[in-house]
Design a protein that fits this description.
- The relative contact order is 0.22.
- By secondary structure, this protein is an alpha+beta fold.
- Strands 2-1-9-8-5-7-6-3-4 form a nine-stranded mixed beta sheet, sandwiched between helices.
- Helix content is 28%, strand content 24%.
- It is globular and about 35 Å long.
């Protein structure tokens, strides 16, 4: 199956906060392997329509100007999360109006976190039938808060970047 080269960067997070990685994470998750592989092959784009830097699971975010790591450094942050509120539990039947309303609620929720800088973005999958999902890159958001928001908005997974600068896919189911 595709995506197994990134298994080191897959983390399953249980409701009580326990974490497993790699094949153990895949096995512990209720998310189908094909969907995990789709998340692994997605480009997580900052800015809409390809306007900013992007990140991919398992690939360093960089450190210089114009990179995701550079944006984090400019904000004085050592962590960030890429989160969407679109298509809860990957339900493609969610309407555009429902997705836009959920996105607005996510932005409102993020505004309550002091010191967090929010950048609009979108997850762009390799499959052309998968429409880009509006998302946010929340710089300075703690891991526990990012996981809570992912669960609140019924997401299967979020993307997490810590001070190591290599994005991980956090499986929430």
């Amino acid at each position: 199956m595709a995506g197994y080269e990134h298994n080191f960067h897959i983390v399953h997070v249980t409701d009580d906060g326990n974490r497993t990685t790699g094949n153990t994470a895949r096995a512990a998750s209720s998310i189908p392997d094909g969907l995990i592989d789709a998340y692994l092959s997605t480009t997580y784009q900052l800015g809409l329509g390809g306007a900013g830097p992007s990140l991919r699971i398992g690939e360093p975010v960089g450190t210089g100007p114009g990179t995701v790591g550079g944006m984090m450094a400019d904000a004085g942050a050592t962590c960030a999360a890429f989160i969407t509120a679109w298509n809860p539990h990957s339900n493609p039947a969610t309407t555009d109006a429902e997705n836009e309303a959920a996105h607005a609620r996510l932005l409102d929720r993020l505004a309550a976190f002091p010191g967090v800088t929010v950048h609009e973005g979108e997850g762009v999958g390799e499959n052309p039938e998968w429409a880009p999902e509006r998302s946010v890159f929340a710089v300075g958001l703690a891991s526990s808060d990012a996981i809570s928001l992912g669960r609140e908005f019924r997401q299967n997974a979020i993307v997490w970047v810590d001070d190591a600068g290599v994005p991980e896919l956090l499986l929430l189911r």
